[in-house]
Amino acid sequence: MRYRELGRSGLSVSEIGYGAWGIGESSWVGATEDESVRALHRAIDLGVNFIDTARGYGESERIVGRVVRERAGDEVRVATKVPPMNRMWPAPGGLDPAETFPGEHIRTSLETSLRTSGLDHFDVLQFHVWNDDWLGRGDWLETIAELKHEGKIRLFGVSINDHQPETALELVRSGAVDTVQVIYNIFDQAPADELLPACEEHGVGVIVRVALDEGGLTGRITAGTTFPEGDWRNRYFRDDRPAQVEQRVAAIVADLGIAADEIAEHALRFVLSSPAVSTVIPGMRTVRNVERNTALSDGRPLTADQLAVLAKHRWQRNFYS
Asked: Going by DSSP bridges, is the β-strand pair 77-82/50-52 parallel, antiparallel, or unpaired?
């Protein structure tokens, strides 16, 4: 496992982190706690030292906390998230921060996360949505400073609205944030336009989510693909979307001259090819997922020619809507 600095924080994190939404047994159908625990332990065995969870991920905080406490001798960084008080995802413009992240709500959510996980602090506390309208307003920044002073959190970050990297540019440039979490993948390359350069300039750590497009960039989504009842991916990949994805992935595979089952590897290597990226957090619900993804932290980024090919495969769309 190779490691990168998390912005200006002084913390070193594994290139391959652990996205723990899927193990929460809520929106993703098929996870079991026993297998999730085994997968988390295997990830730590293989050098993963960064795990991303959230208050809104079902049982995820509890399961992550259990494993981290069992691995007390290993230095594992854990990030969690505070949901917006108004429960609105994504965060539209025009809202007052008193509606979304008032100080008391931030503190209450964090205390709940600490109790649930059994941990005494989180390395990163993130707002689960963000809008630059909130800069200079409300008491959220003072509350974050207090929580850092109390030792309950080390760093402050935000999870940027889906496919809207421009909505956090002012925050990055303000110096008020330590990390940002953003969707960045072969399809959505927009963060490379302004956000990633700004993060490099201002020393902000970058946590990349959805590097595999919720499974779209694994090659396993084809026309007619469905998921178990209750799995949120039935909405994400509804109607003719699986067919669209299959066609787009086939074009990438053909242009790169790779085998169809190599697309996930190239998708993760695409993300890690950016020096601005601190860690990528693919969702991993099984030991097999862990072993396959962690093997890619081998110092072999994509070539300039491969990146030039992939630059032509940007696809502007929002399947969350």
From this structure: parallel
